[in-house]
Amino acid sequence: MNLMANIIINFLVAFLFGNILLGLHRKIMARIQLRPGPPVIQHLLHSLKFFFKETAFPKTAAIPFYISITFLLCSIWIIAIIVGPITHGSLILIFAIYAVYKIVEHNMGSSSGSPYGKLSCVRAVFSAAAELPLFAVIAVIFFKTGTLNIGELIAYQSVHGPLILSLPLVAIVFFVLLLSKSPYSPFAITKGKDVVSGYQTEHFGLLRGFVMLSESISWYVLLWIFLTVFFGQISLLWYIIGMVAITAITALINAITPILNPNHSIMTQVSIAIVGIGSSLLLLAV
After folding, report:
1. pTM of the entire structure?
2. Neighbours of 3 (CB within 10 A)
3. Would you tell me the crossing angle of helices 91-111 and 63-81 to the nearest 10 degrees?
């Protein structure tokens, strides 16, 4: 199969399955909170319908920046698909992609001129200070395996067993990163109720469709990375089971946990990163 066909197939899988997972996440949260909730496919239907709605442009928006930032956001996660599921590239590149994503998240909030977006983009800077240290846990993986190439990590685990058994604290730290990016997370300070929809508040129509497209792809990619890095080469069935299980666990946590204020959110994540990374390094040194 040529590269372009592989990219298109993986893109469609990430979009469709990512939307189903996010719909499942919302459904589980609703059931836990004793609400019927929308159908599991509702998130997918919302993603599609925005592509056919009229696109509105705020008078306060920097139009070229306001439009291009949504396409850039989507492009970032398409590149992540290529680096991750398709080529099994380096985790360093995934880390760089995530860092660029945080920058784009910040600028998306400021591009509309909305006061809610501006407050959200300030919080995006704070959240980056907490989330990037969580992602920096990949350094421990390098000290353990001697590589950050996903393909080589798969080969390593085929010989030495899943990394989740030898680096459980690292897996927990990475899971907290997943939790921070899940919908209605206690760490979701960029889209808290006090800032409406945060950096997405003023994006509507086609542009909102691309934003939701990037959300579904990013959730799929992050879950794929977690399962591949900590479990190695697993079958398609186990990928599905793993992604559904992680989505259900994050939905349970988010349903019973309020959104933290920015200070508590950042300090909690940074503390988990310090304890997890520090303890893992000490265990490796023993």
Report:
1. 0.90
2. 10
3. 160
